[in-house]
Amino acid sequence: MQKLSILGGSRLNGEVRISGAKNAALPILCAGLLTGEPLQLGNVPDLNDVATMRKLLQQMGMAIEVNGGEVILSAAHIDKLEAPYDMVKTMRAAILVLGPLVARFGEARVSLPGGCAIGSRPVDLHIKGLQAMGAEIHIEHGYIHAQVSQKGKSGHGGNGRLKGARIFFDLVSVTGTENLMMAAALADGVTVLENAAREPEVIDLAHCLIAMGAKIEGAGSDTITITGVEKLHGAAHRIMPDRIESGTFLVAAAAAGGSITLTDTRADLLDNVLEKLTEAGAKITASGDRIHLEMIGRPKSVNVRTAPYPAFPTDMQAQFMALNCIAEGSAMVVETIFENRFMHVQELRRLGAQIDVEGNTAVIRGCAQLEGAAIMATDLRASACLVIAGLVAQGETIVDRIYHLDRGYEHIEAKLSALGAQIRRIK
After folding, report:
1. Residue 327 Cα to chain centre, angstroms
2. Which residues does the annotation mark as catalytic?
3. Fewest CB within 10 angstroms: 54, 269, 272, 361, which?
4. pTM recorded for the entire structure
């Protein structure tokens, strides 16, 4: 099993290019199922989750060409309407094939998902939404089996079409919003999604669907209206930059000190994160697709409270906790999205961090120095948090279970090495 060895104490300096967003690429790859014509994607990141999604789509019969960050999808000959457990258990995002398959082919069989162990993320919102649109759904032997009745046949694989509906989300759900937006693109009539997720990745998916001929209004607000069309066509789309990768590198430089410039990124996606980094003492300037951060001296503690977009992102909580561990003063981190998202606390304590947890609140008392130790990643963003802690700890830190890291960060050790970090992958 691979691990990361990090020798702490180096400042970060230089430029780093930000990759395409994992959380935009995964649903957009699934959108390729909605048409038999080619969908050409640019800026697709080289990540384990993306490779898993491609493998799943290929198992269904999709033809996929990969040339670096350029990917061409062709779903002209889909012959298997199933996402098996062995694919879905490693990546919850595989649930995103459900909406497109039911919309275009009238049927799907998708395993109940696995993925990061950061809390319950129920799929009942996806199921209720598809039922409201006329799908019959049975859950048997760990699989969701969805089927549209034969009424109103319309060339969608010989099955009927989903019907437009008004759907209200009890909880804001990013994948729920994405799945039902894709399903509604080929439904008969108008679908209104209320209390929809407002994340930039939802907007990016909408832009791709619109390029394919979908009629969507309101993406980025809490009410999205989709007028279904008979069929979608091929298109070209470039995946947006990864705002969480951007935030992770900025926090790393704020914790370790130095001067870095991110390229191919977007500051407008990071308002909350940039505000908190400025509060911590970083000097930040942004222009075009570049963000520059300079950090002199020890950071100041910052309080963080996660909430759905446009509030502070849960995917940046762990990274800021690492920053607070070596900051001046005390800080409070409140996690309101996932109930198990403090699993990195135990590992940070192994490095000497002073953290107390009660319920969904962590209180961090900053200390002048962390000390290197062997630690273990528990989920994707916890991995990034532990890497940041290793960059500032005295001596060597060994991070185990870095397969979590490879799910969401493209070549992170190469990018950090180029900035001057002493980090390498070992077996």
Report:
1. 27
2. 116
3. 361
4. 0.94
